[in-house]
Amino acid sequence: MGIYSIWEFLFPAEVAHEGLGVAEAIWNDMPGFEGYVGHELIRDLDDPGHLLVVSRWTTRQRADDSIVEYAGHPNARRAEELVSEPRRRFVGEAVAHSA
Hints:
The protein is α+β, with helices and mostly antiparallel strands. The protein is 34% helix and 29% strand. The protein has helices at 16-29, 60-70, 74-82, and strands at residues 3-10, 36-43, 50-57, 88-92. It is globular.
């Protein structure tokens, strides 16, 4: 089933639009990384600055390697400047799936 890397971004309301653009730019870069399968970018309907990214990878190592390689990229640095608290991430695997 693959590996999921789930990220949470919390952008203040005044930079929510820019934050969404930065998050989109980050994830538009991910197809260049080995092991990347795809992602969903989800925006909270009640708080537009609250975003989740659910990304899929072939292995945990590939997901972890992408973080190390991308950490210094201007998009990653800009996201860190804009968030109201540090981005959170966890890596998991699907234990159930429905159609």
